[in-house]
Amino acid sequence: MTDHGWWIYLVIIVAGWLATDIWRWLGVLVGNRLDEESEALHLVRAVATALVMAVTSKLVFFPTGTLADSPLWLRLGALGVGFAAFLLTGQRVIVCVVVSISLLIAGLAFL
To answer: Is the overall model pTM greater than 0.70, yes or no?
Structure first.
């Protein structure tokens, strides 16, 4: 970092904070007023779930990087077993993620 250029990093940090934190606080303020059973909130949950599943599908069927070197059967198997673990543990997302990633790592280590 040079003596004259430090302010650029400060501007990036402040701009990044402002761009995201304002929306978080607005979400908290507006979210507190929403009824959890409202149609609007059901729509938001459905869209969020669809986006997560779209990204997951892209990673499984059109992977990049190291994941692209793994066979499709390994990716599908990890996804299936992770989903089964998700359902068996009372729909805990962290269990699904840990099981799926562990299977992928183990599968890649033995290939």
So the answer is: no
